[in-house]
């Protein structure tokens, strides 16, 4: 999820992102003067900002406020449906990037807006947009924001973990590889990211698990591929952070993807 630093670009149009994205496609850092909602009808979209990383599989909608610099990466063949939110309506949504769970009503109104041929400023489109914003304002927010560090010593470690979330390396071993002491890194995790090394790596693994499960990987295989000692410990960690078991999440994600894929 990490890469060379690029200067953000002001985009007035995201039509190039609307095309289906292949696995691993990168969206360069950019920003808009309008708010934007991003829904992956298939695959999963990872959104990265200076302060954190969000994962949005097919049953989640990402909110990006105006002027918020962000980049992204697709996992799986990703069909992204974008929706512009005028500044006046954007004020009703959070000032920070967010990911929302999509209710059936929210998903249907959203998909109708991005697939209908009616004029964008027509009465039906305006009504559907009001429904989307109203539903988002009361929808539960996904709690899985992964904070990203600014300190270069800490970033060297988190870059290694992004590249290999299943790595069993201890903080001392990662520190040895990056030239920092375990004590220094532990202090940085706590002071800058407000969580321990173990908590951060668990959150990273659960974010990746969302992608694995939405691509159809079994719960057991997901646990093994992402470094858990056994499926039980994975299920416990996932349920604590997501609020539902990985098996139920996998089923709901596939149902949501099927609905979106038929639009």
From TrEMBL:
Keyword match DNA-binding: yes
Ranges of residues in domain HTH araC/xylS-type: 155-252
Domain of life: Bacteria
PROSITE patterns attached to this UniProt entry: HTH_ARAC_FAMILY_2
GO MF annotation, one: sequence-specific DNA binding
UniProt keywords, alphabetically: DNA-binding, Transcription, Transcription regulation
InterPro entries the UniProt entry points to: AraC-bd, Cro/C1-type_HTH, Homeodomain-like_sf, HTH_AraC, RmlC_Cupin_sf
PANTHER family registered for this protein in UniProt: HTH-TYPE TRANSCRIPTIONAL REGULATOR NIMR
Name by which UniProt lists this protein: AraC family transcriptional regulator
């Amino acid at each position: 999820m990490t890469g060379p630093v690029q200067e953000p670009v002001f985009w007035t149009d995201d039509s190039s992102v609307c095309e289906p994205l292949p696995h691993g496609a990168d969206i360069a850092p950019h920003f808009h003067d309008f708010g934007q909602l991003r829904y992956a009808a298939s695959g999963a979209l990872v959104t990265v900002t200076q302060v954190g990383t969000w994962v949005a599989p097919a049953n989640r909608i990402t909110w990006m406020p105006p002027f918020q610099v962000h980049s992204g990466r697709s996992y799986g063949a990703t069909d992204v449906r974008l929706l512009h939110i005028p500044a006046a309506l954007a004020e009703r949504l959070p000032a920070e990037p967010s990911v929302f769970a999509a209710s059936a009503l929210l998903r249907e109104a959203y998909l109708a807006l991005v697939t209908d041929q009616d004029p964008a400023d027509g009465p039906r489109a305006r009504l559907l947009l009001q429904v989307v914003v109203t539903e988002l304002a009361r929808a539960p927010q996904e709690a899985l924001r992964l904070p990203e560090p600014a300190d270069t010593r800490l970033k060297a470690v988190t870059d290694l973990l992004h590249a290999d979330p299943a790595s069993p390396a201890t903080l001392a071993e990662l520190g040895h590889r990056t030239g920092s002491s375990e004590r220094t890194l532990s202090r940085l995790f706590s002071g800058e990211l407000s969580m321990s090394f173990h908590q951060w790596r668990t959150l990273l693994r659960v974010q990746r698990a969302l992608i694995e499960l939405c691509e159809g990987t079994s719960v057991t295989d997901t646990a093994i591929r992402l470094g858990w000692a056994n499926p039980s410990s994975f299920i416990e960690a996932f349920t604590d952070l997501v609020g539902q078991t990985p098996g139920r999440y996998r089923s709901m994600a596939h149902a949501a993807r099927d609905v979106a894929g038929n639009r």
